[in-house]
């Protein structure tokens, strides 16, 4: 079983690794799965791999991981069910972000939309506020939080 212990996206230095890194394969993980620093996963072809990363590591789309034996894989954000929130004006979108933040909801923030995990109570609240909340299946990349290091 491959054991991945290092996140290269944080330490990659072109003077040390001058050529582009070619990953062995891409591992697609949901937003929740990308928060697991110690976990066993299975690839689509049935190969087992284990993450043994520093506690608190939150993987992002495009991160590269290195195994103890030198193999490198790429992390991809897997499409998953979400609510995508849009509004007619920026103030309504800011108000929606404020109310979702008060509920400590993992939230992806973009200039023209918010994205969160599906929740019928929150969808109803958002629609009552006058914003649009549609169900989609797309990669979900929530903010990692103010107390985590941003890369």
From TrEMBL:
Molecular function GO labels: nickel cation binding; unfolded protein binding
InterPro entries: UreE, UreE_C_dom, UreE_N, UreE_N_sf
Protein name listed in UniProt: Urease accessory protein UreE
Signal peptide: none
Keyword annotations of the record: Chaperone, Cytoplasm, Nickel
UniProt KW Chaperone keyword: yes
Protein origin, superkingdom: Bacteria
Name of the gene encoding the protein in the UniProt record: ureE
Any single Pfam family the record assigns to this protein: UreE_C
GO biological process, any: protein-containing complex assembly
